[in-house]
Specification:
about 525 residues, alpha/beta, seven-stranded mixed sheet, 19 helices, about 35% helix, globular
Amino acid sequence: MSENQKVDVVVIGAGLGGMSVATRLAQKGLGVQLLERHNVPGGYATSFVRGRYEFEVALHELSGVGPEGNRGGVYHYLNSIGVAEQVDFVMAPTLYRAIFSDMEFTMTQGWERAESDLCAAFPADAAGIREFLALCRTLLDELEALRMSGLNKIFKPGNLASLPRKCPNLLRYNMAPLEPVLKRFIHDPRARRVISQFWGYFGLPPSRCSFFFFAIGLASYIAHGAAYIKGRSQSLSNAFITALEAHGGKAKFGCGVSKILVEGGKVAGVETDLGERIDARFVVSNADPVTTCRGLVGEEHVPRRWFQGLSHRVLGPSSVNVYLGVNRTPEQLGLMDHEIFVNGTDDFERQFRDCHGLGPATALVVTCYNHVYPEISPPGTSMVVLTTLKFGKQWRNLRPADYARVKHTLADGMLDAAARVAPDLRKYAEVIEVSSPLTNVRYAGALGGSIYGFCPTPSDHTVWRVPSMGPVRGLFFSGAWTAPGGGFEPSIISGSMTADQVLHIAAKQNEATFNFATDA
């Protein structure tokens, strides 16, 4: 890279949001330079090798893809930018199996089957279950209609008056928590637990999680099923980079950004870790907004009230993962499902409180990828990952001498809990690797090791997130920290939304001659 290179856009960070926005902008004709401090793309969408196993880092189930003939919004977007054609998606047979103290339930996909199974298990609440699922489906349809018409256009002042007519349920439930909505429709607490089991995918229990955000996620999974990727999520990340370069964009790895340059009240480019200057009209950060503005832009360039606007936002949890290469097949281990939620207590509120401490995990998910992707591990073996949520703050305060002890004690307890569904898991594990919130900080650069960005509270989700347009002219955000929220599907979609914002501003400035269409 030559000194003082000039491009239209510098994108900081090759996580899903960064790769998504970079690829779309390059497709639309902008000169794009993507910079990533790590030596591989992906952020959390990556893999690593230990022994004879290549482990999936983070992806459990990808929503919004769907099988042929029932494609979801994520697939259509990936297809439009040249990514989907490079990736082989495989569909999970079910969404999850939930194990509680008094019952077990397997959540299936497809509206008719999911409704039928839930109503059969909880016949006294059948009418309420149908109404609840219908509402989730309606919210998904309303949001998809907004996306198709262009969110940037809808939320202009002149167009807001049409929202009550076009999206009445979106507006009605936009600020509602999940728990009271569930209770309005469904009386049996067991049924409510089964339906809200996915709360771990959002990082907040039903009392605190946005109903709207949860409903959209649940509806996307039921409508289109849960997908995985042959070659692991690293294949998806590699496909993004291939598409980016095919569109004329550039990606550089092992090269982070040390400073975002601001001149005359607007961004002027970046300075890299290698001391190079890249001039740019726009800078898009895939990093969290606090690190971006405080560490890269500098507080002197950011209005104080902008930082104050972050004060009510809640940092999402991180995770502890136990990666297991096991010298037995799933059948030999007794693992007959892909995604198993093992609840040590049926109280989701207690589970969430325990996420803030360093004590034993009171809930975990056991993921056996071989049920979706049999060849993910060598013949006769299994790849299993145990995951529990933990906030990063307590880990940051650990003394180095205590870190290994705490991490491995927690992992040991997770193995004990997993024995509930796979008694011989520990016995036949030939590779065991443990990650913590500090691992997420180290490799992904995530604030607090968060895996979801900010928590999707009723006042901080979808359109209420940190805006994609930053507090300095020409600065934008993309990824889990901005709209629509955390997770693989929202992070990918955020790239599309941020790209449309950049394209819109560039078009207004008459500074480009490419196609400014905003269809996905």
